[in-house]
Amino acid sequence: MLKEYAEIIDMNFIDGRNFTLTDQENTIILNEQAVLDLGWTNSTSIGKKIVMTGRNGFDATTYEVVGIVEDYHYQSMYEAVAPLFLKNNSKARSGGEASIVEISNDRFDETILSLQTTWNSIETAEVFDYYFLDDALNEVYQKEVKLSKTVNFVSGISMLICFLGLFELVTLTLESKKKEIGIRKVLGASGQTIVQLLSSAYAKTIVISILIGLPISYYLLDQWLSNFVYRVNYSFGLYFLVGFGILVLSVLLIGVQSWKVTRINPVDTLRSE
Description:
single chain; alpha+beta; elongated
């Protein structure tokens, strides 16, 4: 890498320094995980030598550690931060490899043209091409973004259908119980007692549904999050809070509908029967 790479991605140096133009190409920068895997400490790593075994006929090379950087995610969040060895490439003059360049929005087209001209003057075997780093990173998580939007939409529609269904079911049930409610009122039952009686029957069914649905939802979410090394922390108590909120809204809906029926004069109800 070039020394500008650390500046562009805003590396945080814990110890040591960045590459300089006077460094030889056998200098190297490590991340914290690399230091940990080597059994070293950050403060004692600077100046140490690392011998990398040659491959494909190349001889082994000895590198000197000049800097330690804080761990950062250079892969997706599906994976833990792995040991990172950044070799000095500041004296290289050949192309063919991907480069990261920081540009401003001003005179964008002219900047791209200038980069293309510079690339073509160095590398003739590879065609100049570019993409934006933030777009590439976002592409990694497009599946999760689409899944999140789909789940949110389906959840919203499902909740709407459930409450509309509950509303219609309560309405039909109360319509069929108008005579019973009228008789109870004539016998001295208060409106509050009747509302509690009607609400409790539905509340039991809703509680059973919540107790069945929440563990299943918790398991499915936990399985999905297991794909990520770094994941949000959540407790089962949050699920009970959501379930309690659904129960409260349902009971309020049932209570309001029941209260409306109890306000009807029982004489009118019994007369119609």
